[in-house]
Amino acid sequence: TNIGSQKDRVVSEEEWLQKWEMGNIGFHKEQGHLLLQKYLDVLLNGRSGLRIFFPLCGKAVEMKWLADMGHSVVGVEISEQALKDFFAEHGLPYCEEPVPEISGAKRLQSTSGNISLYCCSIYDLSSSIVGKFDGVWDRGALVAVNPRDRQRYVSLMMTLMEKNSSYLLVTVSYDPNKHKGPPFYVPESEIKSLFG
User: Fold this and answer.
1) pLDDT tens-place string over residues 23-73
2) How many domains does the chain have?
3) Does any domain span residue 5?
4) Model confidence, pTM
5) Is 20 annotated as belonging to a binding site?
6) Which class of enzymes does this protein belong to (predicted)?
């Protein structure tokens, strides 16, 4: 599969932080994603009170939407500003605490307790820190991960999933020779080989 010049492209954590600082966040959606609404029953699979993971969550509005339905939401994001913006924009009080297992990491948790957002690199997380999840909403994570790190990312995600987890993944399709990404082009064949 030809992913063009993207194969070796690397976007650093500093670049992502800069995007948030500059407000260059065209990837953020003010409205809940239509595909999550459309496939919500696939994610929930008739179950209630699920633990749902948002990798590279930014300030995704769907986190509050799912928490309001009675689910427990956990997200991870490198930008502390994004996480604080999430709580501020929804008027949600929260407390902040260090994560002892991860140097420099913080956990911002809604005072209601059903939204926990980790401020750190996703690669610093493990199931011993965040537990396992019944569902994953990957709207902008796999396509944001540097192409060379995809296998590492998917391997981590597999360790965070319960046996009967549902994983909803949104990707973008375009000619990777015409756009350097992110979002990166992840061909369907690669998704199948990554997730098995």
Assistant:
1) 999 999 999 999 999 999 999 999 999 999 999 999 999 999 999 999 999
2) 1
3) no
4) 0.95
5) yes
6) transferase
Q: Is the peptide bond before 93 cis (omega within 30 degrees of 0)?
A: no
Q: Tokens standing for 11?
A: 């976007």
Annotation-wise, does 160 bind a ligand? Answer: no
| Partners of 76 in beta bridges | 118
Residue 77 assigned as binding residue: yes
The whole-number pLDDT of residue 7 equals: 86
| 6 labeled binding residue | no
User: How confident is residue 2, by pLDDT bands cut at 50, 70 and 90?
Assistant: low
169 annotated as ligand-binding: no
| 50 annotated to a ligand binding site | no
Q: Which CA distances in Å does 120 have to 58, 80, 99?
A: 12, 8, 9
65 annotated among ligand-binding-site residues: no
In a domain, 179, yes or no: yes
Residue 25 annotated in ligand binding = yes
CATH number of residue 59's parent domain: 3.40.50.150
